[in-house]
Amino acid sequence: MKFDYLYDQSENLLSRFVTFATENNRYDLAFFYSQHFDGKNIVVSLQNMRAALISSDDISHDQSWIHSLDIRPEDVGIVSHFLTKALSSLFKHDDLD
Fold first, then answer.
1. I need a surface site. Which of 1, 43, 74, 79 has the fewest CB within 10 A?
2. What is the DSSP letter of 21?
């Protein structure tokens, strides 16, 4: 059996953990920023342990994050607004308003 490393990198990541509730649902998200992904963030739903690799620009162009992070249809607008702000203002806490 052949095994070749194609890539193996270690780095210190910036991380942020945010929990918020909409009118009907709660979301627990972890954000990880790595230089490896060309400015995109790894966003993990801590409820279903699924992840999406997204930037603030991806929020309106690619809707796959909705399914990956298990966002309920009634919350897509609220969560997309939060993610756009959170991903563009990397790890600032004043974006929770």
1. 1
2. E
Question: Cβ contacts of residue 22 below 8 Å, gap of 6+?
Answer: 72, 74, 75, 78, 79
Backbone angles phi, psi at 19, to 5 degrees: -120, 130
* Per-residue pLDDT at 13 exceeds 50: yes
Distance set, CA 90 to CA 24, 34, 42 (Å): 27, 12, 12
For residue 95, name the pLDDT band (cuts at 50, 70, 90).
very low
Nearest to 91 by CA among 29, 37, 45, 36: 29
Check whether 32 has a pLDDT greater than 50: yes
- Nearest-5° Cα angle at 93, 27 to 35: 85
Q: Give the ranges where the chain is alpha helix by DSSP (H).
A: 58-61, 64-68, 76-88
